[in-house]
Amino acid sequence: MRRRHHYRRISKEAPNLDITTFMNLMVVLVPFLLISAVFSRVTIQELSVPTAAGGSKQVQPNFAIEVIVRKTGLELANGNSVVAAMPKKDGEYDLEQLEEMLLRLKSSYPEKTDATVLMEPDIQYDYLILVMDTLRETEITDEATGEIGKMELFPNISIGDAP
After folding, report:
1. Average pLDDT of the chain, as a whole number
2. How far apart are CA 150 and CA 131, in angstroms?
3. Between residues 14 and 105, the one the model is more confident about
4. Which of 37, 48, 50, 68 is most buried, with most CB under 10 Å away?
5. Using one digit for the tens of pLDDT, what is the confidence trace for 119-145?
């Protein structure tokens, strides 16, 4: 005769999970993330990106404002040639001189609202933001009242690689 093996089934209970340390982590982590989220601010700058689709109309070439950010300094170009070069002063870009030249351009072309920033490789992102802020608007002082106000220069900014 054969013996039949009877296996006795043992009921196993699920082990108890100790989540105390995880809860302690959450108690510390959640307030920290909530507090730090208040101080971080994200802004979005809308940029006009050139498209590959072209229209059938031939557009007359017009004056284009290009600010070229190079390692040696800033250059202001009109689309064809460099109009002005502003070398670095004490290792920093001369944004004040750029602002003065942009104010003169805005007085000559008040209807123009677009400009292009062209950057060489290996230039810090912070300089792109500083140049874009300079292009977008400037602070002017009313000589009669002495009040300081903001003047919009060229808010429609395109970016690209410098030639």
Report:
1. 81
2. 16
3. 105
4. 68
5. 998 899 899 999 999 999 888 887 778
| Cβ atoms of residues 117 and 161 within 8 Å | no
The C-alpha atoms of residue 75 and residue 120 are separated, in whole angstroms, by 12
Scanning the structure block, which residue is given the tokens 């060489």?
A: 120
Q: Which two tokens stand for residue 137?
A: 């608007």
Residue-level length of the chain: 163
What confidence category does residue 13 fall into, taking pLDDT thresholds of 50, 70 and 90?
confident
